[in-house]
What does this fold into?
Amino acid sequence: MDLLNIKINYKFQKPHEQLEPFQPPHNFFPVPMLQWLMTYTFDLTMQVPPYLVNEHYDDRYFDVVNAIEEAKHIYFRSSGIMDILSAAGPGRKEFRIGETGFGAGRLLIALMDFLDNSGITDLEITYNSVELHPVTSERMASILGGFKAETGPLIDQLVRTYSQVEISRPGWQQIQLTRPFGILTLNLWIGEALEMVHALTIPCDAWFLDGHGPKKNPAMWRRELLMAIGEKTVAGGTCATFTVAGAVRRGLTDAGFSIEQRPGVGGKKSVLKGILIN
Ligand SMILES: C[S@@+](CC[C@H](N)C(=O)[O-])C[C@H]1O[C@@H](n2cnc3c(N)ncnc32)[C@H](O)[C@@H]1O
It folds into this structure.
């Protein structure tokens, strides 16, 4: 496994070296083991399309294969947010999410798709996110283009609504999306993550930490930011992330989370879930 990881990193292509983009369709690999194997194989050989690379960090916005399923596994199923929602009982439910690193909204698309298929119809989601280098709605459409077959109307709705956001204006911007599960309000802070966390007046029920890997972007995992996130989480609230790096585990533990490593998905052997205990 470690050998494979080394090969993956070694073979990672820079944008200027890239040839043909490849986006496998949803359910291309229906069998989990085959899916796992193919993820490695494709990462070893495939080229990363330039529009999927965040030029500010020389890193992909998300993994090229099965990124929607990966998001559902790491941030929704593994972190147990459905259990929290179900435990709230019948009636209109409010749920507040914080995300570090909005990017092109892939996690938001995955969340809406997940909730649309959950059978819930009366949910009010407040989705607080932050982006230091916001993309245009045209770039968002390109980045999300690989998911069109599975979530086309959802992407169209997000891109259309997001085009109202003034990406050159710092601070909060708000848009609303009406979905079968209820209403989602996106509060997007244009600026730096710590500013956004400080600007939150109500703590979140769940945090999705997705700001590039700690090696590529240590600022998104700095202790000061993780401590602030802990302070803006309700008791029993959760955090989830794709990285299990030691510094991240220690930072989240110091911030008051009880951390658990959970089985990963695709190219990720394990992922992190945290519950705020103090
Ligand atoms: C991995 S991408 C986000 C992917 C996104 N969550 C998705 O699922 O598509 C991380 C994002 O965090 C943004 N970012 C990096 N450092 C930041 C910071 N200090 N404050 C705010 N945003 C930051 C990057 O510009 C990038 O768009």
Q: What stands out?
A: The beta strands are 53-54, 59-60, 93-100, 123-131, 171-179, 182-190, 204-209, 233-241, 257-263, 270-276. The CA atoms of residues 190 and 213 lie 20 Å apart. The chain has ten helices and ten strands.
